[in-house]
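Researcher: Next entry in the queue.
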Amino acid sequence: MCGCRGQLVVLHDKAPRHFRRLGVEEIHQLWKRLLSDPQLEPLRQLSAGNESLLTCRSSDGTIEMRKPRPMLIVSSTSWTADEDFSILLSALKLYDTKAASRNACSGDCVTLPPLAVLITGKGPLREHYEQEISQMELQQVHIATAWLSAEDYPLLLGSADLGVSMHTSSSGLDLPMKVVDMLGCGTPVCAYRFSCINELVTEANGLVFDRAEELAQHVQDLAESQLSESDGIYQRLFEGAAAFRSIDWATNYKRALELF
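Model: Structure for this entry, 260 residues:
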């Protein structure tokens, strides 16, 4: 074993302390500012008047989360062939079809919220996927791609309802830092399935998938659960992500040192 001797301790990654869950007022101010960015123009139609993307100002001047409101899904990528975003786009198309059908139903149907999807990052395949997105005819799903500052990225994650990771591992041994960042902000995760992802994404904080149909069903189940505001699957994963967030990188490192 590489000639190593002595006590060996595995130190799993954790997000730094400034990755955190935002309060309602912070979310309001963040999205009032972000929606002025031309990159996020596809998401603007989901807000109006005293509303931001996720929040609104009530008649007495207080800020509160909109009810109902869009579900904010965030994914980050370096836009390389290692991440097959056609799976995500296909899943979003499936969700859009289901949501449009449910929302047009005249009977006793459970409606689905619109999705605000923001994919962050830059890389060689960004233009290719942006072209695909521009040709999608969607009613209930709104997709924007953007490159955000290092300061805004953790704020975005801290305002999101769900993170999606398309990371695959050629070795089967490396865990995606983007998922650590999402969970570090208290955001539940849907992650592409590979051999060791269960070390990070567990049944307490997220769901895994390997097909578009599976991801679409996960998003639908989470959207329904969040909309109902009951103690369902979304609330369980949200609480699990909050538990992950409760230990930051510095605390985790200190605990590891105490084992020696």
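Model: The mean pLDDT is 91.
Researcher: Noted, moving on.
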